[in-house]
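Lecture notes, part 5. Sequence design as translation. It can be helpful to think of inverse folding as translation between two languages: the language of shapes and the language of residues. The source text, in structure tokens, appears below.
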């Protein structure tokens, strides 16, 4: 085989393989998604002779409470949406008004519509939830008055009251607000500045300071990432067609055949 033939054959092999490796690398590292936090267990299974460990992340349980409109609501009504949650009480004179104000800014940032005067809250993918940690005093009328004063839109923001035990158990057992932070959280009174990010599968994906502008910016950014996140069990068919090895080897075979045919024909002419 001549040098030109050998060079052509190498190009036919290197180009598709290089494209495949580049596409696979880009798909694996394009975006750094918000991490999972609450690990329940690790399950191992054998696949093609190799042991693979699967992390089972904690899924928050459902909870039923009452919102500022007097409606009984369930957390799982918002399944499939991204949730931002915090804890407050209406008589708080320290951090709570600032937390609510920052949550309101977040709510207003997720609007749709070109005209700023006619923007509409996008309720399709995100829900805001504020749990009262003083539910005995924070009745429905009190929550409604507080919501009106603080500019809370009920379209996709619930202020919730109900059983104190249910709220506190949810805070500590399901959302783990006392973990991953140097900020102490008393089990007797959940007074914390933390915002909690929950994904579409009801799994905790982040903790943020509701008083820190940089942390709030990171929260908004992470919401954007979760909006783009794909279910790993449902791979994109388009990308799968591109990186499928059977497709790759077919391209290689066609290119090699074309080069062999071309150089053979050229040699016969000479």
């Amino acid at each position: 085989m001549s040098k030109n033939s050998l060079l052509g054959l190498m190009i036919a092999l290197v180009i598709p393989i290089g494209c495949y490796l580049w596409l696979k690398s880009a798909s694996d590292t394009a975006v750094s998604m918000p991490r999972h936090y609450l690990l329940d267990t690790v399950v191992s299974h054998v696949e093609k002779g190799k042991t693979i460990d699967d992390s089972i992340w904690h899924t928050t349980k459902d909870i039923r409470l009452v919102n500022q409109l007097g409606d009984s609501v369930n957390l799982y009504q918002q399944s499939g949406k991204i949730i931002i949650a915090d804890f407050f009480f209406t008589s708080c004179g320290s951090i709570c008004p600032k937390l609510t104000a920052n949550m309101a800014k977040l709510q207003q940032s997720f609007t749709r519509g070109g005209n700023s005067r006619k923007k509409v809250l996008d309720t399709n993918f995100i829900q805001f939830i504020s749990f009262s940690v003083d539910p005995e005093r924070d009745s429905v009328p009190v929550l409604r008055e507080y919501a009106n004063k603080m500019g809370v839109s009920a379209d996709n923001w619930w202020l919730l009251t109900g059983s104190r035990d249910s709220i506190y158990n949810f805070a500590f057992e399901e959302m783990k607000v006392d973990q991953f932070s140097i900020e102490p959280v008393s089990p007797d009174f959940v007074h914390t500045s933390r915002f909690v990010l929950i994904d579409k599968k009801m799994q905790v994906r982040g903790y943020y300071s509701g008083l820190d502008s940089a942390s709030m910016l990171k929260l908004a950014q992470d919401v954007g990432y979760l909006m783009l996140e794909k279910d790993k069990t449902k791979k994109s068919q388009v990308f799968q067609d591109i990186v499928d090895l059977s497709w790759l080897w077919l391209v290689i075979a066609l290119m090699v055949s074309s080069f062999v045919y071309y150089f053979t024909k050229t040699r016969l002419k000479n």
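The translated text above is only one of many valid answers, since several sequences can fold into similar shapes. The CA atoms of residues 137 and 212 lie 28 Å apart.
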